[in-house]
Design goal:
By secondary structure, the chain is an alpha/beta fold. The chain has one domain: Rossmann fold. It has 10 helices and 14 strands. The longest helix is centred in the last third of the chain and has 19 residues. The radius of gyration is 19 Å and the shape is globular. The chain starts with a helix and ends with a strand. The N terminus is likely disordered.
Length: about 375
């Protein structure tokens, strides 16, 4: 039904109260605690298997939250004003072009389109037939980096074979940014990182169009624009650096979870700062599995497709996607994945260090 999901979001935002009984994450400061945002009245508990320090509920309060009515329970919050996020329900080549054009961007010079090429055999990456018209209208080069976990995309040779097998070479030139070397970008105002390691070819482009498949993620909770400019543009060693909270560049992708989530925000800010405004972001909300496109055998999506969103602000964009998921009636498993991994910390920290704005105005271009 047209605009059904925007209606759901607006209802969720303006309802005076939401169901009680969600548990709060006591490991977070008071101003970062999450307020309830259930999709349905009888939503089951998400966090029964978690330890107390891991528990988190669905929806973060904005910093200047109003006083709460204790009898009504925690309230939802408006996110009006702030950054503009454009939305369409039309998940098609035409819809993708339309939401991009709504931004009114005028990229100049060499244009990189950052994608995820998708782990074989059956990941839910954005298919070439969906993105072809946009990429070719920009005369863009598809860019990606090698993975740090092995798999079929862990080396130049095998990664380029995946690129060919998945049909990306049929629509554009593809550049593996860390094929030969890496460079360091400074992190300004970081709490965890002071530098970020990206593929050396990153500097060969004048403008970046960050085209992300929004979905769940096994480690980050969710993957969207912020992850695509942090882990996605990081070199192999840089990925390990982010995962480990800046403690090492080899030895596997493990480390303190909250440091990892904050490191993604800080690495993303280093990329954004280096481009000085020459970047925009598009999230496609389809095939909403709880698993990332780095998983070649992801869980089957059990939530409906939502649409495509675009913004110049990656924080507002990811926040809008989270809000749309939380407002949907069939989002239980995806919200559980996001909550289990404390995924919202990335957005909270990204806003705190100045990467973007959690407040936004959602503009439906289908109206």
């Amino acid at each position: 039904m047209k605009n059904m999901f925007i209606t759901l979001l607006l209802l969720a935002v303006f309802l005076s109260g939401c169901a009680s009984g969600n548990q709060q994450n006591d490991s977070l400061p008071a101003e970062e605690k999450i307020t309830a945002h259930p999709a349905v009245a009888d939503e089951p508990e998400n966090n029964d298997s978690l330890s107390p320090e891991e528990k988190i509920t669905d929806h973060p309060a904005i910093p200047d939250e109003p006083e709460k009515d204790e009898e009504a329970g925690d309230r939802n919050y408006q996110r009006e004003n702030g950054s503009v996020v454009y939305f369409t329900e039309d998940i098609s080549p035409e819809g993708l072009l339309a939401v991009y054009q709504a931004l009114g961007a005028e990229p100049q010079g060499r244009i990189a389109v950052k994608i995820t090429t998708g782990e074989p055999p059956n990941s839910n990456y954005l298919k070439p037939e969906l993105i072809k018209d946009l990429v070719q209208s920009l005369d863009g080069t598809l860019v990606e980096c090698n993975t740090a976990y092995g798999g079929r995309r862990g080396s130049n040779k095998y990664h380029m074979q995946v690129v060919e097998d998945h049909g990306f070479l049929d629509i554009a030139t593809v550049d593996i940014l860390d094929a030969d070397a890496e460079i360091s970008l400074p992190v300004i105002g970081g709490e965890v990182l002071s530098e970020n390691f990206v593929g050396a070819n990153f500097i060969n482009y004048d403008y970046y169009v960050v085209l992300s498949h929004f979905k769940g993620h096994q480690m980050a909770g969710y993957g969207g624009a912020i992850k695509n400019i942090s882990i996605g543009i990081a070199s192999k060693a840089g990925k390990i650096w982010i995962h480990s909270g800046g403690t090492r560049t080899s030895g596997g992708i493990s480390g303190n979870q909250h440091d990892f989530l904050k490191s993604m925000a800080e690495a993303g800010k280093s990329v954004s700062d280096s481009l000085d405004g020459n970047i925009l972001y598009i999230n496609v909300m389809n095939q909403l599995s709880i698993d990332c496109d780095c998983n070649g055998r992801p869980a089957e999506p059990d939530m409906h497709d939502v649409g495509i969103l675009a913004s110049f602000d990656p924080v507002a964009l990811d926040q809008a996607c989270i809000d749309l998921v939380a407002a949907a009636p069939d989002s239980e498993t995806l919200m559980k994945r996001i909550n289990q991994q404390d995924g919202i910390i990335t957005i909270i920290h990204a806003a705190g260090i100045g990467l973007g704005n959690r407040e936004y105005t959602l503009v439906n271009i289908d109206d």
